Amino acid sequence: QVACGVGRAEAPVRHGAALPQGLDSSLQQWGVVAPGQRQALATRLRGAAEAAMAALLAAEAELSPQQRGGARAHTDLLGVDFLLACVDDALELVALSANSQRCLETCLLAEAMGRAVGEPHGDLPRLLAEALLHRAQCHLVEGKDILLIGAGGVSKSFVWEAARDYGLRVRRLCH
């Protein structure tokens, strides 16, 4: 999901103060009229966002659960803020920050505005609901003791890792 906020070069664009709009509309306002150019920039933006997210996830994978912030740390919903700048008559993407809340709010607002004018439903509300339900389920079992009887062997080791990440204390009885 991409939502854009347009602002002036001398003042920072703030999520809460800028009306979100689509990337295609923003690029047209900037004078990028050729559909191929707009599509190419959208592809570059998606690639840059995915690369930034992959780098964040790779760095996080190197950390212990405590270094990541414990069982309640949330990196299931992340957004990456980019600045689109004109450098030597070319549009360049500059990654500014990664966050979990502001981008999500802006994208939800943009999607709701789109639906109000007849745009089709997107995936963002479903993805948000899935992530929040997963968080709620993890919260319900956090810190609980679970007794597993005859629970799998080495092939199920991922279960124990996930249980640790969820903050579960697992006791196993094998017969």
TrEMBL record:
Signal peptide: none annotated. InterPro entries: CARNS1 (IPR031046). It comes from the Eukaryota. One of its GO terms (biological process) is carnosine biosynthetic process. This is CRNS1 synthase. It comes from Stercorarius parasiticus. GO terms for molecular function: ATP hydrolysis activity; carnosine synthase activity; homocarnosine synthase activity.
